[in-house]
Records
---
Amino acid sequence: MGAYILRRLLLIIPTLLGIMIINFTLVQFVPGGPVEQAIARAQGQGDVFGSFAGGQGDTEMAGENAFEDRYVGARGLPEEFIKELEKEYGFDKPPVQRFLIMLGNYIRFDFGESYFRSIGVTELVVEKLPVSISLGLWSTLIAYLVSIPLGIGKAVKDGSKFDTWTSGIIIVAYAIPGFLFAVLLLVLFAGGSYWQIFPLRGLTSDNWEQLSLLGKIGDYFWHITLPVLASTISAFATLTLLTKNSFLDEIKKQYVITARAKGLSERQVLYGHVFRNAMLIVIAGFPAAFIGIFFGSSVIIETIFSLDGLGRLGFEAAVARDYPVIFGTLFIFGLMGLVVGIISDLMYVLVDPRIDFESRQG
């Protein structure tokens, strides 16, 4: 097992390097970089993308004016000012050199400072992390608590009316995009057009500090209910079907027939023999399921419900072309995803010690 873990850990290095190279290369071709953003803000435009729509056809890259015209809206600004901006953001160096410097810093877990927030990337991530973890953890737990009993029930009653009706509900739930369900919840229960039961935005109320301990707990769950429901819907559908199919596959095996022939009750067969084997893939997939919900729905859900988490941070950084935040969070999340893959394999061994990864080759 130790050799397998070592191989997987070593594989993280080229995988993470490939992720960073691909994304860094793609970013070089995206217009509206941090220098252009700074120029737009200096001229009071606020956002460089407004400048892309007009006036671009009048710009000709020629002769000594080529440098200034490279940045949309840069006319009227001193060339020295633009060069100073390039130096400040590191764009006075070739892309390859910038990339190598960035990797050298990332190896030391030095992710730099945000271009536009005057705060370190690590501090930003630590500040936003609790919101995203809270959303992802509760969504995953609820998905498991509902999906596992429902999946077992569907497997035991396979082909019955209960199985048919619940399958229809699951298919509908899986087909509904998370963001659309989030909007529906807001319209129905957050004062959109019907009931004002839950708050419209945020994770806590304005008077959070004045609340008692029980009041804070109640206020927290009051705010987190709708975002968690919106995040859970697709994971709930997938996990239920996974549990059902896993149990059906085990129920048809020879050892179950043998257990029944020995006179064991269906409950003893199901929970004494089938449960452990059938739940192997479900339990071992918990880390990956959490990361999937954590990454997959956080951007849209956090934006819709105005939650100040990592998803919203990444979205705002992409819009503002805040490269230290973009690449820093990409590196952190990529590393987390790869480590979680190893943890998932270890979970398989923990649930079923018969699994031997040492027999794998490569």
---
Amino acid sequence: MNDRAALDLLVSQGPLTRTQIGELTGLSKPTASQLLARLEAAGLVRTTGNVTGRPGPNAQLYEVNPVAAHVAALAVDQEGITAAVADITGRVLGEARVGTDAVDEEAPHRTARLVAKAVDGALAKAGLGRERLHGAVIGTPGALDPETGALRYAPHLPGWHSRRLKEELAEVLGTPVVMENDVNLAAVAEQHDGAAQDFDDFVLVWVDEGVGAAIVLGGQLLRGATGGAGEIGYMPLPDAPLSRGGDRSAARPDAGGGFQRLVGSPSVVALAQEYGAPEVRTVAEALERDAVREEVARRLATGLAAVVAVVDPRLVVLSGEVAQAGGEELRVLVEEEFTGLALPRPELRISDIGGNPILIGALRTALAGARDAVFTTA
């Protein structure tokens, strides 16, 4: 327990002296010295210089040994896979992206080969081989069945629905693999590094080409009985065509009905074109128009009111392409529309994560797993 406490301190606070570790853990100097000797012998910590400018002998600084473990994080979308490799401190050493055309459509085990190609690209940039990996976390659209691990509600990702896919990925990468819903991972990133820090009860609403939510209550992700909690893109709302039966098998994420057909990226662009701007091709261009921004805010507020009435979170974070393009102007409009729609009125924020929140969340999750494994068994 003392060893783990010291390692966690070194991860969160960076290099520390023996005295500082003793003070922060409440351990005596001899005990702290013995602890550091054990961790150094196990290859988990190393010295990294001295503290100078103080009276008396210079004190050695200790840090977590970066090479103690490495992890891979991946974010999957319709166009391809982005992979990042980091050491146990969280420092990203290499990143790569492969398109869906990187492996022939008819190739056997195509999905596993695409994942391996993305990871190998990131490992090559990091100067590492697959044998150095201690785990991988993959973020994908759609819900994952908690019993089988199979991907559900993601028909636009062909090849990702095999019940053996997780095992195939572990075999090809040579390391344990965790598959997780992409919006859930974005929420992990938001809670650790973004707008939801210090919140144990919040909802992250992802408004992009696809629409979904991650619900965090008491600091824990709510997954639901079948893994489908947060699939609000299918939520029936006024003015939205209903998603029935075969609609879910449509090839495009904007197909079908419900909330997604009101606020997803393709619908926002289509709305601008309907409002007399046929030249608009991007969400950012569409949301520059006041009338479009106001209508999207109205639609967002209507959908959020349904979620808030059931969950009653302290905070709602808007993320994804539509939220980022609309920015603070869109947030204010949604907040104004929200007045009177729902009795609970949580704080509303726009995500402030820099970079890909799904990849960052996958990295956070992979690091937590690797640290648990390495720090516990050393």
---
Amino acid sequence: MSLRVPVIVTRTQPGNARTVKAVRARGLPAIACPVSQVVRSRRVIQADGADALALTSANALQAVRDTGPLIHLPVFTVGEGTAKAAREDGFATVTSAGGDAETLARTIARTLPAGRHVLHLSGEDRAGDLAGMLEVLGFTVTTRTVYRTRLARGLTARARAALEAGPAIVLVHSARGAQRFLTLVDAAELSAVSARLAFIAISERAAVPLHTRGLEAHIAGQPSEESLLAALDELAKRRGAP
């Protein structure tokens, strides 16, 4: 398909690069514009008797990279992108929930016996209470914060040029990402262009900052990267892509 309207990808790296690649594979012009920068913890993560790892972001993998005592543990991830990264890092048993924190909790509960100890590695900002859900299901959970994010210094030059030139499609992966995108747009004195943007959000939760501004958003059918891209495909078709 072909579509002249650019697609701005706002998620952090390394996920941003994967989404940009997926958008371009669809024949759509994609622009990388990470709205957050990742600051990783230098803490050495130990297994601490854990029976499994739970990862809600690929950014958490950096904390356990080259950490021998953890490589034998089964890994449960919130999405396939993180699962792929875990496999590339040498984890042999990796299961993707393909959804959100609630889906991840259910996947772990279906796979592991109750009473097992799950080590959850995450960022400072968490979408959903994975530990709380797992504890209700009978698991012991240790949560380690291994990275945090901060606002990017500004819109990328290509993203700013696209916003100044005309309409664009903006992919939103989280509520924090949506808020930070709007903050950067405001800082660039481009607030007036927001109304002509087509937002696609990975979930209703992610779209809340947009709705607060009175902006509409297309919502993915499921809180997953695959569903987000499917929503992009549908929007592209409606806009006249062959």
